[in-house]
Amino acid sequence: MNNKIEDIVRQDIKKIAPYVPGKPIEELQRAYGLGIEKIVKLASNENPLGPSHRVVEAIKRCADKVSRYPEGSGYYLKNKIAEVFNKPTEEIILGSGSSEIISMGMEVFINPGEEVMYPTPSFQIYEILAYKIGAIPVEIPLKKDFSYDMNMFLERITSKTKVIILCNPNNPTGTIIYKKQMDEFMRQVPDDVVIISDEAYREYVDTDDFGTAEPYLYSKNIIITRTLSKIYGLAGLRIGFGIARKEIIGFMERIRPPFNTTIPAQEAGIAALDDKEYINRSFENNIKGRVYLYSAFDSLGIDYIPTYANFILCRIPNATEVIKELEKRGIIIRDMFGIGPEYVRISIGTEEENLLLVQNLKELL
Amino acid sequence: MNNKIEDIVRQDIKKIAPYVPGKPIEELQRAYGLGIEKIVKLASNENPLGPSHRVVEAIKRCADKVSRYPEGSGYYLKNKIAEVFNKPTEEIILGSGSSEIISMGMEVFINPGEEVMYPTPSFQIYEILAYKIGAIPVEIPLKKDFSYDMNMFLERITSKTKVIILCNPNNPTGTIIYKKQMDEFMRQVPDDVVIISDEAYREYVDTDDFGTAEPYLYSKNIIITRTLSKIYGLAGLRIGFGIARKEIIGFMERIRPPFNTTIPAQEAGIAALDDKEYINRSFENNIKGRVYLYSAFDSLGIDYIPTYANFILCRIPNATEVIKELEKRGIIIRDMFGIGPEYVRISIGTEEENLLLVQNLKELL
After folding, report:
1. Which residues constitute the domain of residue A176?
2. Out of A71, A255, A264, whose CB is closest to B24?
3. Contacts of A221 (CB under 8 A, 6+ apart)
4. Which pTM does this prediction carry?
5. Do A298 and A243 fall into the same domain?
6. Same domain, B134 and B240
7. Mutate to test the interface with B, among A8, A128, A248, A266 (most CBs of B within 10 A)
8. Could you read off the pLDDT of A261-313 as tens digits, one per residue?
């Protein structure tokens, strides 16, 4: 056989750079042989408190049921979400993380050759998904201070624009679209453009000025994506959900993989949504950690972007070296050199983890 | 807003009929208020023995780790698969069930407007995936006895044919492609056509004449998909894998959702692959159950297609009524009326479940 894989692969696939996730704890252990208790992972915006004890119990309870397929649609978890978020069940769809909801939203609406617009720097997945479905990615840069320039989105809309993805709060900058900006944007955006509002981090937002897309669910074509990976502490179970009008959910259901969420994820999801105490504690931990890290960064001369999420984008002098040195000491943070030299993203950890990070930064800077 | 969702949705999406899964146990309970101990589900080709005790332990062990993201690539599970199936790790990719592997394989190679060929009747997902990516589905009917007509595949190949999916053993018929047929097919199929060989049920095959695509992994463009949902007993965790040459896996990795398998699935997968005793017991249970059901069907005058999998396609007189009546008695089987009237697919259960089914069929026929 003349080996012609390169020739028969779709051209768009070749444009995709593989996603680089935050370094897993096990990888660092493999590399440096460190014990698991020693490692502090501040690289993937996970909930540093560990899962809710109710979640742990729910998983254990369903462990002997996993030889059966999950309920495809996630009946009970959807009912719980409907109750907690005050929406009818028909306006909810479950996904393997919210990124699968974003993927399905794009696949339902975007024909090959049509455009999908999203901010940059932002979540790397948007570009991968665009190429995967043969869409034309149109990247809209944030302003110099990493705030959103909503006018630029409006200006760049063409007859080929099918979907606009907004990441709010934006990853990895922690900046948000304010209510006023969102109102103005929604007033002007054409009705035949679908807005996917990725609100994975919104539980951490502590301002009333946050511009969720929710008020526009019934007046525009909107898909809001939410996740249980962040404040709800279920990153390892891959569970997120989308909220949209019934007609939109109906089309997304046609391409939803029949069993896209697992039994433990569905059971743990219900438990996580029920544990208000854990959610509050996670929120408080994040606010406290942010205050502490801001003041530590100030005293260390580290520039940072004020954040509304559970991570902080900052510039650390000599970042490549510092990241490597921190890893040797068992602390993982994430380089964001795609944005510019010295940019790193640090997830807010527990009090103890933040302290450890700061102590080590002090020694290294 | 003039509500124009219908106008902006992709045309192909409208062609997709939603996937209808086997009725979950909970759904029957909701409908008839039956207690869970009473329900016998023979509708989704699951392992009726329940998960391996090693799997249950593995899930419980990792329950408190789920606030972290999984290792995206599934390092340890891939190593285990590499060991068990005697392949280098670079030739393995993990998926959320093997259907995600099929999906990625199609997405990597098929441009919109190109053709994907697959048997009919077969797994409904192939058609859904084809429309999802804008491919043209070309359905190749099995022969009247539901055996494969490989010549028809070859005859229908055009310059637009990009992928051929083979389901072997075929779901829902239980028929296989024999070694000789596969050899002949591989000799003739063009090198620039990619073959996806869906071998989800191959662990149940008890003939040496089975024609796996494995011998052609390095001489043709092949993706073999395997699952841990069936004999390994992990349907509820969504975990499968693909085997292909390194170059092919490399392209698939570019579109693999970064965290497509969960922590419990990865941990349970390792445990399941290690439990040879459970796998053997599951295999034996299936062979025994098949012998028993064949003879019961014979004496009840039920026509069936001899199967190499863990399910039997048969024709039951007055099937609609019988299915309904069985459900009232807590037994779920699956109608296959898409094939023709009276066709049903019955998964082989435990000894006790098979007995219960036969007793009830006797009463109803």
Report:
1. 53-274
2. A71
3. A191, A192, A193, A194, A195, A245, A248, B1, B5, B8
4. 0.96
5. no
6. yes
7. A8
8. 999 999 999 999 999 999 999 999 999 999 999 999 999 999 999 999 999 99
